[in-house]
Amino acid sequence: MAITVMQRTEMKYLLSAEQTDFLRDRLKGHMEVDKYGKSSIASLYYDTPSYQLIRTSVEKPEFKEKIRLRSYGLATEESPVFLELKRKAYEIVYKRRVQTTLPLVRKFFSGEGDICAPGQINREITAFRDYYKTLVPACMIICDRTAYFEPGGDLRLTVDEDPRYRLDDLTLTESMSGISLLEAGRTILEIKIQAAMPVWLAKILSEGGIRQGSFSKYGEAYRQQLIRAQII
């Protein structure tokens, strides 16, 4: 199974349609769209029955963590999916990512064994599961993503269109539909870097009036659901 470890800084921005067009145009010559082009991504977030993980996250602590299962397009019982454990401490993101399949994920969350071969990553993900004891599918987040990379560098950038969510039919195999999280035309820009932001990119953001913000798709879905339930 493929196992990935990442440590980086992630910065988020909410863009208007005009800012999105401006950014795409100015990235030419600096970054390239990856081989997948624009693709639909579904992320199934697991949480405790009391939503402990997302309730902690929206309070914006210095340390927070979450676990999700990701597919690129609709999944099948045999196709690869990716279980990701993400932790954020003092603005640095640490991610553990394991390639697996849906049957193995179901066994893992039912407490039957490990998610991958023995080693540090397996111990971390298993310890996370065992600490929270009961983790169940809680929210599906879907978006249409275009990913950019810097040839020869480690800079990565993604633009997510039509981010949406649903709280029922929590499976990666059936549908990519959901309730929109943003107004039509708005996008989410994420910049992922392991060092300092390059000067040329900082200049583009400044010229486009693109200001860093804070936005969690799962957090916004949770907030919207509370509003719908007239809790807030």
List the helices and strands and how they pair.
Blueprint: E1 3-15, H1 17-27, E2 32-47, H2 52-57, E3 63-72, E4 81-89, E5 92-100, H3 102-109, H4 120-132, E6 136-149, E7 156-166, E8 179-180, E9 187-193, H5 199-207, H6 217-228
Antiparallel strand pairs: 1-5, 1-9, 2-3, 2-6, 3-4, 4-5, 6-7, 7-8, 7-9
Which keywords apply here?
single chain; alpha+beta; eight-stranded antiparallel β-barrel; 25% helix
Oligomer: single chain
Provide the helix percentage: 25-40%
Give the strand line-up of the largest sheet. Answer: 1-5-4-3-2-6-7-9
The helix/strand series, from N terminus to C terminus, equals EHEHEEEHHEEEEHH
C-alpha geometry:
globular
Biggest sheet record: 8 strands, antiparallel, barrel
Look at the structure and give the mean pLDDT.
Answer: 92
Low-confidence stretches: none
For the termini, the CA-CA separation is 43 Å
Gyration radius over CA: 18 Å
Characterize the structure shown.
By secondary structure, this protein is of the alpha+beta class. Helices cover 25% and strands 39% of the residues. The protein contains six helices and nine strands; from the N terminus they run βαβαβββααββββαα. It has helices at 17-27, 52-57, 102-109, 120-132, 199-207, 217-228; strands spanning 3-15, 32-47, 63-72, 81-89, 92-100, 136-149, 156-166, 179-180, 187-193. The chain has an eight-stranded antiparallel barrel, surrounded by four helices. The N and C termini lie far apart (43 Å). 23% of the residues are buried.
